[in-house]
């Protein structure tokens, strides 16, 4: 059986983050990816300023209806939302329709630009979507905003932030400290209301990390769809994304994306050699 998995997120015109990261990751996990596009994100190559173009709300709704038209989905991931109406719509759909697992990537900042995206959406996301989520996957900036902590620089701070975000009503939280976390290793923290699990990995010094956060949350979503526990899904997602970062590729001189196919060496599939052997 191939599990059906939905991403509700923004389309990244560059191909490595957002919907594109999600669908590629779902495929790598052997799940069937479905998409609801909430907005389209472009980046000006000169100024490097991202622009978000929301998709009309009735079109978002039609996509959701299409996505759920075959009944229950194995898992759903939420990323960049785009507008308040989208949050309302998603809340209504997700509480009336069914999915086995819900992963919320509370996208508020993109790597190209450290400004917080659409701060007016943050409170709505906290009140309406976090309580529905099996896991919330903030990066450090997002964790600060959701927890209200002004600095997250130590493992104790990470624990405090995770606890505060857990108390907003999600079943679990993983904070992506990653290589921005000021310590020797890239540090993430998973908390499920019982245990704090720190995940340490060597820091990868590279510019090809754009799309890492989206791909990590997408990998957790697909892992849950395939029956992994929350912690197993987080651990495998971490390995999947580390390889994707190592083998990342440049879209242009500024934007280096993770390579979603790295873990399973997708670049070796469907080669001309295979074509010739098949004949
Ligand atoms: O990584 C955050 C993010 C989320 N969603 C979309 C994006 C990005 C970053 O570029 O483009 C659509």
UniProtKB/TrEMBL annotation:
Please give the family membership noted in the entry. Answer: Belongs to the ThiD family.
Reaction(s) this enzyme catalyzes, per UniProt:
pyridoxal + ATP = pyridoxal 5'-phosphate + ADP + H(+)
Listed under GO cellular component are: cytosol
Q: Which SUPFAM superfamilies match?
A: Ribokinase-like
Entry keyword Magnesium: yes
Enzyme type, top EC level = transferase
- Name of the protein this chain belongs to: pyridoxal kinase
Q: Which organism is it from?
A: Vagococcus fluvialis bH819
